[in-house]
Amino acid sequence: MKTGAELYRGKAKTVYLTEDPKVLVMHYRDDTSAFDGVKVEKLARKGMVNNYFNAFIMNKLKEAGIATHFEKLLSAQESLVKRLDMIPVECVVRNIATGSLCRRLGVQDGLELKPTLFEFFLKNDELHDPMINDYHIRTFKWATDDEVAQMKELTFKVNTILQPLFLAAGMILVDYKLEFGRYDGKILLGDEFTPDGCRIWDVETKEKLDKDRFRKDLGNVIESYEIVAHRLGIEIPA
Ligand code: 5GP
C-alpha cells in the first residue's frame, strides 16, 4: 500500500492517506507523551512495540466478534486501518480505582470496583479531556443515543474478552480507554489498544507495567511494555 499525504499527527501516531480513500496507514512513532502533551520523550522501540501489541489485541477482539478498524500490519511501525469518522469521546472502563478517578472522587487507590465503572470523556486536549455524560453527548450531538449504547456495550464486551486474557498471563487489566468511529453505518473500534491507553498491574506484586511508568518517572517504560507483550505471547522482533 503506497503511503500518501499526512492526514493527522497525534501525540504518538501519525496517520497517512493511501490511494484507497477507505483505508489509512497508521504510523506508531517512538514519541511518548503525558499530561496532554506537556511531557514528551522519544523512547527506543516504542513505536514497534505498540504497533505489534495493538495488532495482537485487535486480532483477539476480532476473533471474539468485535468489529475494529484494524486491517493488517504493514511494517515494524505501520498498520493499515479502515478510515473511520471518529466520535470525539473516550470510553473508559475501570476494574480497579486509580488515576483520575481517585483524584476526582477521593476514593482509595487499588479499590476493586464492583460493578465495573464506565466513564465518558470529551477528546479535547485544550480542555484536558473533561468527563462528560450521555446527556452532553446527546445535547451537543457528538453521537446518537444508539451510538452511545453501542459504545458502552462494546467497551464492556472488550473487558470480558481482555480481562481473562491478561489474568491468564499473570496481569490485572486495571482500566483502559477506547475510541470508536463510524464506517459504512456501523460503529467500529478505532485508535489503538496498547499499554499507552490502559493500566496493567502484575497480579502478585501489583507492579505497574503501563504508561504510568512514564507518567510517574518509574523508569523501564518500554521494558515493561515488552514484559506484558512477552507474557501475552506477542512476538516482537529483537
Ligand atoms: P485516567 O482517567 O485515570 O487518567 O485514565 C483512565 C484510563 O484511560 C487509563 O488507562 C489511561 O491510560 C486511559 N486514558 C485516558 N485518557 C487518555 C488519553 O488521553 N490518552 C491515552 N493514551 N490514554 C488515556
Q: How is this structure best described in words?
A:
The protein is an alpha+beta fold. The protein is 29% helix and 34% strand. The chain has helices at 46-63, 100-105, 134-139, 145-168, 212-215, 221-232, and strands at 3-9, 13-18, 23-28, 31-34, 39-42, 70-75, 78-82, 85-86, 89-96, 112-122, 131-132, 171-178, 180-183, 186-189, 198-202. It has a 5-stranded antiparallel β-sheet. Strands 11-10-9-12-15 form a 5-stranded antiparallel β-sheet. Strand 13 (180-183) and strand 14 (186-189) form a beta hairpin. Helix 1 (46-63) runs parallel beside helix 6 (221-232). The chain is globular. It starts with a strand and ends in a 6-residue tail after the last helix. The mean pLDDT is 97. The site of guanosine-5'-monophosphate has 14 residues, from strand 9, helix 2, strand 12 and strand 15. The site of guanosine-5'-monophosphate (5GP) has 14 residues, from strand 9, helix 2, strand 12 and strand 15.
